[in-house]
């Protein structure tokens, strides 16, 4: 009693070569351990066999208050009711698709602007100024508003099948922006581990860009959890994309529903993960995972190289 029992005294730690020999034996000649690759994208893969590294990982640190944003089509008849229902479940940022012939006194009727952010996406010429005038008349805090003509801008980077291309585009758009406060939206994709690594890499690349430019660009990096199919598949996809956002250290999500029945699902799921599991309270939950650290590293290298090549 009282004697500390070390597990290594009972079980001998296997070497990497012993693990590889065991894997080759289990594969029975169909493949070898060298064939086991995790494909991040075409032309970018790493070995799935990751040995423990003595490297002292430095977790990504973000002071996150978990932004939850939703796109709002201001032309919809039930737009005001939709906004209120979203705000009631924790949405704190409205991304408004704005048009000239919309009455924003009706759209934002009863919406308290003091506690939320508003991002303006003009769909027609003159729409931005119309909604800005209304917000000013309402006494809205202009430091909580993102719009093309203000110093606070919104940048959306779609996903076209390549993680590194998406991050290279992010760097180009931030580099070319005159804003010092940006709401960055990255479309998510279906691969969970690649999504985690992509978001982690995004933070690292933006830190490198700030260092290269000798400036400090303030940003919030959001993952857009838009599923690729309707129905129960949307329910599943939006859930694990929200989880990937939290594990990858995103500053929040943009919830986009294809099926109106599931419009609140991603918001509810994200809130449950943040509030019930407390994963969002852990600094960089993926730090120390050799597989994700390696994926993050190779994504950073390829994305930065693509960015530098076109600067």
Largest sheet: 8 strands, parallel
Order of helices and strands: HHEEEHEHEHEEHEHEHEHH
Uncertain spans? none
| Rg on CA atoms, Å | 23 Å
Distance from first to last alpha carbon: 66 Å
Shape: elongated
Strand order of the largest sheet: 6-5-4-3-10-9-8-7
Helix content: 40-55%
What portion of the residues fall into strands of 2 or more residues?
Answer: 15-25%
Tally the helices: what do you get? 10
According to DSSP, the number of beta strands is: 10
Secondary structure class reads: alpha/beta
Average pLDDT reading: 88
How would you describe this protein?
The chain has 311 residues and is an alpha/beta fold. Helices cover 41% and strands 18% of the residues. It is built from 10 helices and 10 strands. An 8-stranded parallel β-sheet has the order 6-5-4-3-10-9-8-7. It has a two-stranded antiparallel ribbon with strand order 1-2. Helix 6 packs across helix 10 and helix 8 crosses helix 9. The N and C termini lie far apart (66 Å). The mean pLDDT is 88.
């Amino acid at each position: 009693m009282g004697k500390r029992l070390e597990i290594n005294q009972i079980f001998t730690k296997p070497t990497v070569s012993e693990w590889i020999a065991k894997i080759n034996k289990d594969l029975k000649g169909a493949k070898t351990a060298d064939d086991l690759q995790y494909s991040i994208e075409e032309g970018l893969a790493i070995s799935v066999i990751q040995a423990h590294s003595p490297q002292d990982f430095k977790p990504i640190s973000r002071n996150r208050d978990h932004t939850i944003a939703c796109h709002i089509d201001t032309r919809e008849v039930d737009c005001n009711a939709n906004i209120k229902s979203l705000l009631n479940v924790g949405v704190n940022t409205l991304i408004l698709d704005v048009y000239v012939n919309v009455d924003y006194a009706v759209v934002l009727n009863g919406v308290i602007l003091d506690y939320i952010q508003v991002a303006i996406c003009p769909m027609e010429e003159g729409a931005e100024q119309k909604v800005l005038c209304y917000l000013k008349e309402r006494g809205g805090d202009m430091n909580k508003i993102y719009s093309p003509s203000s110093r606070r801008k919104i940048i959306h980077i779609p996903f076209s099948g390549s993680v590194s291309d998406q991050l290279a585009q992010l760097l180009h758009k931030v580099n070319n922006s005159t804003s010092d406060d940006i709401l960055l939206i990255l479309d998510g994709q279906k691969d969970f581990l690649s999504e985690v690594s992509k978001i982690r890499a995004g933070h690292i690349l933006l830190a490198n860009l700030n260092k290269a430019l000798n400036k400090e660009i303030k940003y919030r990096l959001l993952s857009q959890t838009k599923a690729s199919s309707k129905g129960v598949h949307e329910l599943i996809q939006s859930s694990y994309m929200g989880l990937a956002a939290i594990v990858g250290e995103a500053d929040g999500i943009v919830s986009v529903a294809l099926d109106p029945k599931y419009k609140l699902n991603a918001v509810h799921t994200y809130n449950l993960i943040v509030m019930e599991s407390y994963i969002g309270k852990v600094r960089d939950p993926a730090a120390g995972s050799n597989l994700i650290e390696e994926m993050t590293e190779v994504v950073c290298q390829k994305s930065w190289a693509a960015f530098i090549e076109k600067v």
